[in-house]
């Protein structure tokens, strides 16, 4: 069995956390972005984080959050990693990493070859990279849109840091995405939902099984 690490993003209930833990996924993602159907208030996020068993890494996803917002999240929610999913600069990534002492994963949106340079820029300051589909200009959400990018753009590439493939992955296509790109980590949200923000536990299990 290939050692592929899976992140399931956008959990909203303790039952979601239980399903992710049972699936063998490595990371559970909690979204803090008010416009998202997956947004969590601090009390709910804390409850979910406390329900996660040891070994399931708890990741807080934020979008251009300022220090006050991050302070509030860090104070309320036990976490293992921060995921920055906005237009945070490399300097801001370094600042967040130093301020909180947690590993930081920076999301980079990819639509064409020209977007790949940013991966190198962030790889000197972030602990991990999340290579995601660039959202359409009209999108309300900067991620979690269920859209894939052309995986050939990152096929067999090596970066300075561990990276995760994201964007439009599903139980049906994740094995092919891994085969093509040689990604060792994958991230999914929409592809394991029955409706926006509603996780389908059978699809979570199917996704992890297909990835591995
Ligand atoms: O999921 C959200 O609602 C979200 C909101 C704001 C910024 C990012 C968001 N999700 C980012 C993720 O980590 C997703 O898992 C990733 O973009 C892949 O999403 P999907 O294509 O839906 O699997």
Number of domains: 1
How many β-strands, per DSSP? Answer: 10
Distance between termini?
6 Å
Q: Output the CATH topology.
A: TIM Barrel
Helix and strand string, N-terminal first? EHEHEHEHEHEEHEEEH
The major beta sheet can be summarized as: 8 strands, parallel
Q: What proportion strand? A: 15-25%
Widest sheet: strand ordering? 7-6-5-4-3-2-1-8
Continuous helix count: 7
> How would the global form be characterised?
globular
Brief description of this entry?
This protein is an alpha/beta fold and 212 residues long. It contains seven helices and ten strands.
Topology diagram in text:
Blueprint: E1 5-9, H1 14-23, E2 27-32, H2 42-51, E3 57-62, H3 67-76, E4 81-84, H4 90-100, E5 104-110, H5 116-123, E6 128-133, E7 163-165, H6 174-181, E8 185-188, E9 193-195, E10 198-199, H7 201-211
Parallel strand pairs: 1-2, 1-8, 2-3, 3-4, 4-5, 5-6, 6-7
Antiparallel strand pairs: 9-10
Helix pairs in contact: 1-7
Bound molecules: ligand LARABZUK.
The ligand O=C(O)c1ccccc1NCC(=O)[C@H](O)[C@H](O)COP(=O)(O)O binds at residues 9-10, 29, 31, 33, 36, 38, 61, 63, 85, 132, 141-147, 166-169, 187-191.
